[in-house]
TrEMBL record:
Pfam families: Aminotran_1_2. Keywords: Aminotransferase, Pyridoxal phosphate, Transferase. It comes from Halopiger aswanensis. PROSITE patterns: AA_TRANSFER_CLASS_1 (PS00105). One of its GO terms (molecular function) is pyridoxal phosphate binding. InterPro entries: Aminotransferase_I/II_large, AspAT/PAT-like, NHTrfase_class1_PyrdxlP-BS, PyrdxlP-dep_Trfase, PyrdxlP-dep_Trfase_major, PyrdxlP-dep_Trfase_small. It is an enzyme of class 2 (transferase). Its EC number is 2.6.1.-. Belongs to the class-I pyridoxal-phosphate-dependent aminotransferase family. Its cofactor is pyridoxal 5'-phosphate. One of its GO terms (biological process) is amino acid metabolic process. Homodimer. This is Aminotransferase. The keyword ATP-binding does not apply.
Length: 385
């Protein structure tokens, strides 16, 4: 029997990152700077809360939207940290990672044929998510000369005034770019003028260096047209526990919950107990991790400059985005470095328009491995450039 796969699934190519992981698995002693995952363990207090919940037999479903106690804690946390005001009853949903929240939003808001503008380069799952929901993707490339910030010029050049939704992610994966309030204001004005719904992925909000994160939802007239995504994977090092959340107007969160209750039922219960403890007592652990990421960021940027590779001044997340030397494509360079020196990085073009000629380098890896990896990169550049 031959299955007839759906056109939507066949329209999406395999992940461009996966091929590099498969090459890496063929080699010994590979240092991976390709994965967007903290090398820290989940703070002990959160792990202990998860263990205790299991010992107490708290293994049943929770409310579809997540434990009310956790939603209240999230409401307090985002108000305190990011000046965001959302009610626990109807404006917050807890999901199986921020990725599920983004997928729910696409399915709740995108009708077949709708156009979704995506600021790129960006997280690789947005584009497939739009296609799976039946929408059409409109790429909005950002540029190094704009510090990879989304600008009104870029939106107008891409034709985003005709779009139905706009997706942006700041601090950005893969560039490490951030947008200050003054950068977001003209984008917000554009969204209001052209009646765009905004999906703001702020999963790296805590990992903002040299200043505080500003959410576009805090700007005038934006709360009612924005869905904000966040979670516990990055700042709280809880990737494997799969817990995220979305904040938005009650009607949108209600629609997302309708899909969630028929598919996921509820986010993982054990992870919700861990997250509750993380918000209650792990601020110090988060601050310590952020300080270490910042030290690594400064080291990596400095080493790339010593090596002679141009690199954008990343100020958020845990990525930097160096340019490959002249005469190389990003894919050629990344594959050659992996095969010859055993260093795994990701070509920037797998993250969409604007990523060509760059590499995504994750510094969510210890300093010892970062030193070794950058020494190997330096040797490669000396041999080939």
């Amino acid at each position: 029997m031959t299955f007839e796969l759906s056109d939507r699934v066949q329209a999406v190519p395999p992940s461009g990152i996966r091929r590099f992981f498969e090459i890496a698995e063929e080699r010994d002693e590979v240092i991976s700077l390709g994965v967007g995952e903290p090398d820290f363990s989940t703070p002990w207090a959160a792990r202990d809360a998860a263990i205790t919940s299991l010992e107490q037999g708290k293994t049943s479903y929770t409310a579809n939207r997540g434990k009310r106690e956790l939603r209240e804690a999230i409401s307090d946390y985002v108000a305190d940290r990011f000046d965001l005001g959302y009610g626990a009853d109807e404006e917050i949903i807890v999901t199986a990672g921020a990725s599920e929240a983004v997928d729910l939003a696409f399915r709740a808001l995108v009708d077949p044929g709708d156009t979704v503008a995506i600021a790129q380069p960006s997280y690789i799952s947005y584009e497939p998510g739009v296609i799976f929901a039946g929408g059409e993707v409109l790429s909005v490339p950002t540029k190094k000369e704009d510090d990879f910030r989304l600008t009104v010029d870029a939106l107008e050049a891409a034709g985003a005034s005709e779009a139905d939704l706009l997706v942006l992610c700041y601090p950005n994966n893969p560039t490490g770019a951030i947008m200050r309030e003054s950068d977001l204001e003209p984008v917000a004005e554009f969204a209001r003028e052209h009646d765009l719904t905004v999906l703001a992925d702020e999963i790296y909000a805590e990992l903002t260096y040299e200043g505080d994160h500003t959410s576009i939802a805090t700007l005038p007239g934006m709360r009612e047209r924005t869905v904000v995504f966040n979670g516990f994977s990055k700042a709280h090092a809880m990737t494997g526990l799969r817990l995220g959340y979305a904040l938005g107007p009650a009607d949108v969160i209600g629609a997302m919950n309708k899909i969630h209750q028929y598919t996921m039922l509820s986010a993982p219960t054990t992870a919700q107990h861990a997250a509750l403890e993380a918000l209650d007592s792990c601020d110090g652990d988060v601050r310590e991790m952020v300080e270490q990421y910042d030290r690594r960021r400064q080291f990596v940027l400095s080493r790339f400059r010593e090596i002679g590779m141009d690199v954008f001044e990343a100020k958020g997340a845990f990525y930097c985005f160096p340019e490959v030397p002249e005469g190389w494509t990003a894919e050629e360079f990344a594959e050659a470095v992996l095969r010859e020196q055993g260093v795994a990085v990701v070509p920037g073009d797998v993250f969409g328009a604007g990523g060509e000629g760059h590499l995504r380098v994750s510094y969510a890896t210890g300093l010892d491995d970062l030193r070794k990896a950058l020494n190997r990169l330096e040797a490669f550049v000396e041999d080939h450039v």
